[in-house]
Amino acid sequence: MSLQEYVERILAGPDPAPIVAAGHPVLRGVAAPYTGQLAPATLADLIELMRRTMRAAPGVGLAAPQIGIPLALAVIEDPGGLDPELAAVRDRAPLAFRVLVNPRYEPAAPERASFYEGCLSLPGWQAVVARHRSVRLTGQDGSGEPLDEIVTGWPARIVQHETDHLGGTLYIDRAELRSLAADEGIGASFGAEPTPLTAARVLGFDLA
Predict the structure, then answer these.
(1) How does DSSP classify residue 21?
(2) What pLDDT score was predicted for residue 184?
(3) What does the buried/exposed string (b/e) look like for 3-37 if buried means 16 or more CB atoms within 10 Å of the residue's CB?
(4) Which residues define the annotated binding site for Fe cation?
(5) Less Cβ around it within 10 Å: N or C end of the chain?
(6) CA angle, 200 as apex, 198 and 202 as ends, to 5°?
(7) What CA–CA distance (Å, rounded) separates 53 from 64?
């Protein structure tokens, strides 16, 4: 079936949409660039479904492959509301809802930051990932307008995470595997620290 038909089928299904878990091939393929394959109304409905699904999870980003659609489209949003110390250390300011179409990123500075990170497609686990602290984001927004901007701090981490999904890369591929921890118990305490210093010490890994 065509992409239009496939998306219409997903739009007619559960709402919020089921999130695809790691192990599904759609998460390991390269998403097709969006070149107008969907009717404008269908694209708008898909974006709204992705927004509802992301918020219901809840998460701060969702890529189309995570609901089974191999299309270079993602939505991001971070309401913030963290402890002020955490927010300051992680450079995590609230991020308004945004749509990324055919996004790409490249480092804008050499500095990297290491923090715990999770994924809606790998529920129950988190691991430390060293990400570029600042990236140049290019692509289009949901209206087709071009994007070319510098994104810094936690929003840059979200951009990198969601854009990686569109190339078939999961956060675990970039993670320090010795840091892998469950979201509950001691792992929850690791993730709640401003920086993963305790986890690095007790689990035996180096921070970037």
Answers:
(1) P
(2) 94
(3) eeebbbebeeeeebbebbeeeeebbeeebbebeee
(4) 119, 161, 165
(5) N
(6) 65
(7) 11
Q: What is the pTM of this model?
A: 0.96
* Domain 3-203, CATH among 3.40.50.2300, 3.90.45.10, 1.10.132.60, 3.40.50.300: 3.90.45.10
Q: What is the pLDDT of residues 140-168, one digit of tens each?
A: 999 999 999 999 999 999 999 999 999 99
CA distance 162 to 127: 16
* Residues labelled catalytic: 162
Enumerate the β-bridge partners of residue 25.
none
So where are the chain's domains? 3-203
Distance in Å from the first CA to the final CA of the chain: 45
Residues of the chain with pLDDT under 50: none
Report the distance separating Cα 84 and Cα 80, nearest Å: 10
d(CA 42, CA 31): 18
Structure tokens that stand for 140 in this block: 């289009």
